[in-house]
Amino acid sequence: MKTHQKILALALIAFLYLPVQAQKAGLQSISPDELKMHLQFLASDELKGRDTGEPGLQIAARYLAVQAEHLGLVPVDADQDFLQPYIIREKAYDRENSHTTITVSDSVTMVNRQTFYFFPAPQGDRTLIEGEVVFAGYGINDEKNNYNDFENVDIKDKVVLIMNRAPMNEEGTEAQFDNTKWSSMQNFQYKMQYIYSREPRAVLIVMDPKSGMQSIEDVNPAIAKYLGKSRELKPEEEESAGQGSRPGMVLIHRSVADQLLEASGKTLKDLQLEIDRTLAPQSFLLEATQVKIELNMATTDLVVYNVFGLIEGSDPVLKDEVVIYTAHYDHMGTDANGGVFNGADDNASGSVALIEIAEAFMKEKKRPKRSIGILWVSAEEIGLFGSQYFADHPLVAIENIAAVINLDMLGRTRTEEDEKSTRSGLTIQAGDSVKVIGGLQSKVLMDINKKTLDEMGLVGNYTYNDTNHPDRYFYRSDHINFARKDIPVLFYSTGTHRDYHMLTDVEERIDYDKYLKMTRFCYKVGFEVAQYGDPIVVDKPMSGW
C-alpha cells in the first residue's frame, strides 16, 4: 500500500474509532475511589439523613453545587449558582392548641391533651369534630360470621368509637374469625367501606386493650411522625381549604376512650372481654355524652433546592436538545431516638453517580451531539416534589428535553441476607442483573438500552416495567413527572433490599464492584442517547395511554 493510502486508511480508522475511544476515556474516569469518597460524605451521620427542610439537605445541595462548578458545568439558573429554589408548605400539628373535650350531661367537662392523629391529614389550618358518641365495638360487619357491630345502633351524624383488630382469643394474639392474625392498621380500609356508607360524622379508632398499646405511637413511631405533618408544593395561587364530604377518621389515645365510657359505668377492657367471650356486639349510644376534637395546624414554608448544571453538546443543531440525568439526593432524616437514616444506597448512590457521570462527559475530547443536563432533585421521599417542580418550571425549554435518565439506588447486589429477609416486596437484583423501567414511550430509547446492556455484559430485568404492576414501580420515582410531559424516560436501579428505608442503609454495605459497573453503564446509555443522529421519536406518548 502506498504511503498516502496508508495515511488515509489510518485517518479513516481513527475517525471511525473516535466515538469508542471517547466513551472509553469517559468510562475510565469513573473510579471506585471517587464514588466512595463522595458517598462517604453524602451518607455521613453529620448530614442527619438529608431530610427535606433540614440543614443536612441544604449542606448536601451546596456540596453538589460546588461539584458542578468544580467540574465546569454551566449554570442556567437566574442566580448562576446551580440552585433552583422552590417552596414546600409544611403543616404540622400545633399540639399546644389541640385537644379533646368530653362533656357529660352538660355539666362534667374533661379536657384530654393526649396526642391524636387524623387520617388522612386535614386540609385546613383548623379542624373541629364534635357530636354525640356511639360505641360500636370493633366496627365490623361480617355476614360470613354473622357478626355486625352496627346491628342495633344508628351512627348517622354521630361520632362512632371503635377498636382496631377483631374479636380476639384470650391471649389477644389471634382473631377468632378464620383464626388469622390482624395487625393494628391492616383492616382499616375494610372497615371504613361499610362505616362510611352509614354516614357517621366521624370515626374514632382506639387500640384494643388486649393489644397492650395505648396509641398509634406505641405501634410505630414512624407512622405517628408521618401522620403528624403534611407537606406539599406551595400552590401557585392560594386556594381556600375546604373539608371534603368524607367523615374524619381519628386515631385516639386509650385514655380518651376510657373517659368517654366513664359515665356508662363500663370500661373499654370490660367491653372487649365481653365481645370476645360471647362473639356478640356490645354497641350502644353513650347517653348525654358529647365529644369535641379540635386540631390546629402550624404552617411553615420550607425553601429547598434542586441542583442543575449543563454540559453543551458538540453538534451545532442538536446541542439545543438536552438529555437529562436525574437522581434525588434527599432521604428520611432521623428516627425518634436520633438514629440516622443515612440513605447510602437510597439515594446517595444515584446522586454520587451523577457527579462521576458529569466528570466523565467533561473529560471527553469530543462531547456527544446533544447537550447533557445533570439534575439533582430534592423532596422525592415525601412526594416527588423536586422533580415535579422542575418539570413544571424547567431551566431549559421543555420541548428541548430529548430524554430523561433517572438513577435511584445503584449500589447493592442481592446477598444471602436479602434472600433470608422476611421483608416483603424486595426487588434487589443479583449479579449482573439491572432493574429497568421505562423505554415504553420510545423504541429508540429501548433499543439503545438493550444494546448497551449487551455491550456492558449486563442483563435487564423488565418485571417491574409494567404500568399495571401491583407495586406500581413505574410511578414511584422522579422519572414519572417527566413521562407525564411526554418526555421519554429510562429508570435504572439495582432494586430494594433488606436495608431499604432502614437505619442500616449505610455506606459500608455498598457493593462497589456492582456500583462501578452500574455507573459506567448509565453513563454509556446517556452518551449513546445524546450521540444518536436521528430524532428521538416518542412512539407511544404517555398522554395517549
Mean of pLDDT: 92
Number of domains: 2
Q: Give me the Rg, rounded.
A: 28 Å
> What are the segments in which pLDDT stays under 50 over at least 5 consecutive residues?
7-22
Terminus-to-terminus distance: 59 Å
Question: What is the third-level CATH name, the topology of the largest domain?
Answer: Aminopeptidase
Portion of residues in beta strands equals 15-25%
Largest sheet: 16 strands, mixed
**Structural class designation:** alpha/beta
- Count of helix runs: 14
Identify the CATH class of the largest domain. Answer: Alpha Beta
Give the strand tally: 18
User: Which CATH architecture of the largest domain is right?
Assistant: 3-Layer(aba) Sandwich
The residue fraction in helices comes out at 25-40%
Shape: elongated
CATH homology superfamily name of the largest domain: Zn peptidases
Question: What do these coordinates show?
Answer:
The chain folds into 2 domains: 40-74 and 312-544, Aminopeptidase (3-Layer(aba) Sandwich), CATH 3.40.630.10; 93-299, Glucose Oxidase, domain 1 (3-Layer(bba) Sandwich). By secondary structure, it is an alpha/beta fold. It has helices spanning 3-29, 32-42, 55-71, 188-197, 216-219, 221-227, 254-261, 268-278, 344-362, 385-392, 416-420, 443-455, 480-483, 512-531, and strands at residues 83-93, 99-104, 108-112, 117-118, 126-135, 141-142, 147-148, 159-163, 202-206, 229-233, 248-251, 284-311, 322-328, 371-377, 401-407, 433-438, 459-461, 489-493. It contains 14 helices and 18 strands. It is elongated and about 85 Å long.
